[in-house]
Amino acid sequence: MAGTPPSPTARLEAEPAPLAFEAGTTALVIIDMQRDFLEPGGFGESLGNDVSRLAAAIAPAAAMLAAARRAGLLVVHTREGHRPDLSDAPPAKIARGAPAARIGDPGRMGRILIRGEPGHDIVPALRPRPGEPVVDKPGKGAFYATDLAGILSARRIETLLVCGVTTEVCVHTTVREANDRGYRCVVIADACASYIPAFHEAGLAMIKAQGGIFGWVAQSAAAVSALGGGAA
Hints:
By secondary structure, this protein is of the alpha/beta class. 30% of the residues lie in helices and 21% in strands. The protein is built from eight helices and ten strands. The strands form three sheets. A six-stranded parallel sheet has the order 7-4-3-8-9-10, with helices on both faces. Strands 1-2 form a two-stranded antiparallel sheet. β1 and β2 (19-22) form a beta hairpin. α3 (58-71) runs parallel beside α8 (220-226).
């Protein structure tokens, strides 16, 4: 690993207040930065969304990923998707979206939101490295029906730096799940995005409201600085 690791205790400028954290007990969690959500022809577009609105989160998330790797943090990637036989996809979920472009249907990047298909893969700019856990989840939250809790527990993680899409759905659900499990969560605002900008802003406001009821909100530049800064 290149670069200088952060001091044992780092200080992150965040809202509603600065946060001190230890690199050794902190993980970067990058949620669902998949082609099915960020590129044309995937599940996001099948729901009628303008997927280009998510592109702004890629560069800040990549900066976070590079900083976390330099600092030696645990990096966890998640992907939402289902088994090819759809045995883990509730009918109520499959029924949503355009009738001709639902989960499991053929799309421009293979079957929509199906594990192993091209659209299920993470975008190239954020591709996982060997040794970085990739958590495949069937739901919105990253703890539901996954081994994420075990991964974090094994590394004695206490603080999560959270990036990904979409802010108000999978990011928010995961942060709420993590909060109930005792984790301190910092949502990296510009490394998250929504198809609906107002939902992104509302989602961030909910996280930091009432003294940080679900956690903290910070910008990627502040988080990269707290992790030691420097170039990839």
